[in-house]
Amino acid sequence: MALSPKLIRYPERLATGVFIVHSGWQKWNGDAETAQGTHGMAAGAYPFLKKIEPTLFLKLLAVLEITTGLALLVPFVPRAVAGAVLTGFSGGLVGLYLRTPGLRQPGSLAPTPEGLGIAKDVWMLGIGTSLVLDGLAKPER
Q1: pLDDT, tens digit, for every residue of 57-110?
Q2: SS3 (DSSP) at 75
């Protein structure tokens, strides 16, 4: 019995999409202290973000996360498109991990205990890239 590529990839899309939507929903309902902390960390890695007010930044990040998660959850969004959205989003998180002092062991990609929570986001980069490659190799009809 052959399963369609769309069905084969849906469990990873479902698990990742639900995780990201939930994270976005938490940020949407975040308080000023959460906004300050999230914005401070992001602006430390990406200085251009310093221009955005922390509460607005948290709302924008929430919308980005919810949109990314929904792109994965909605079955009619092509694998390559959903994967590209996820790859862009997770690439930003991996960049945050690589640019933030104290998250990695000196001279290594290995995380410190403080960096483990962000380093684990590399799995989303792998899933996004796989979805893009799969969508390009086997286009949906």
Answers
A1: 999 999 999 999 999 999 899 999 999 999 999 999 999 999 999 999 999 999
A2: coil
- Please work out, in degrees rounded to the nearest 5, the angle formed at the alpha carbon of residue 87 by the alpha carbons of 65 and 25: 10
* pLDDT at 2 exceeding the cut of 70: no
- For 130-134, the CB contacts below 8 A with 24+ separation are 130/12, 130/83, 131/9, 131/12, 131/13, 131/79, 131/80, 131/82, 131/83, 131/86, 131/87, 132/79, 132/80, 132/83, 132/84, 132/87, 133/83, 134/5, 134/9, 134/79, 134/80, 134/83
Please give the model's pTM, rounded to 2 decimal places.
0.89
Residue 61 identity: L
Alpha carbon distance, N-terminus to C-terminus of the chain: 19
DSSP 78-135: -HHHHHHHHHHHHHHHHHHHHHSTTSB-TTSSSBPTTTHHHHTTHHHHHHHHHHHHHH
